Amino acid sequence: MTNCVVIDDDPTSIEILSFYVSKTKELFLKASFTDAIEGLNYLVENKGKVDLIFLDIEMPEMNGFEILKHSQYDGALIIISANNENAISAFETNACYYLPKPFTYNQFLRGVEKYREASVKIDPNAYSKDFIFVKDERIYKKILFSDINYCEGKGDYISLKCKSQVYTIKSTIANFLDKLSGNPEFIQVHRSYVINLDYLTDFDNDTAVVSGKIIPIGAKYRDQLKNSVNFL
């Protein structure tokens, strides 16, 4: 069950979203707020208990971006707004979907599907030397370790950058490393990054380039990386 919270100063929008959530399998509305500060306080008091927020950007007293900042919420997020100029800023928050007002149930469902695609979880028993299965609420997805470019830790979540897709998973770097036993091509280079050496193209003392992304190298991991590659 996905625990949802709606924060929007428009009562009509709250009513519509509450109805849509009630119609949608596996969604459960934990709380809704027309007052931004009350919504912020709820998120702070219930940290880790909210799976998905439907959040309006433009509200009096405190906007949606300020709520995210002060609550330190790092879970799944669907941004809602009547102003399309907010779309770019919305995706800078790592929102999985932008829902412009007014919206239909079909648009709402597209946002939920995007959330389900992103919110996969590692199955601790479903892995081997060559691959791992990650699970969303309906299906298991097989990921070959050889397809993973790098892993980035984001609090209680990690992002797996694969050849064709990025998976956001509720897990930690430490938990992911436990699943990599017997895969020496994966090296931790920073407290927030594990890289696949097969995709490493160059590096210096401070940064590594993996599949075109510049990744920081932590001082405590520098020697480990150097000892893992061959030099001429």
From TrEMBL:
Residue span(s) of domain HTH LytTR-type: 131-200
**4-aspartylphosphate modification, residue list:** 56
InterPro entries, per the entry:
CheY-like_superfamily, LytR-like, LytTR_DNA-bd_dom, Sig_transdc_resp-reg_receiver
Q: Does the keyword Isomerase apply?
A: no
The UniProt keyword set, sorted, is:
Phosphoprotein
Organism source for this protein? Answer: Negadavirga shengliensis
Q: Source organism lineage?
A: Bacteria, Pseudomonadati, Bacteroidota, Cytophagia, Cytophagales
The cross-references to SUPFAM superfamilies, in alphabetical order and at most eight, read: CheY-like (SSF52172)
Using the record's annotation, list all stretches that form the Response regulatory domain. Answer: 3-116
Superkingdom, taxonomy of origin:
Bacteria
Q: Which Pfam families match?
A: LytTR, Response_reg
**What name goes with this protein?**
LytR/AlgR family response regulator transcription factor
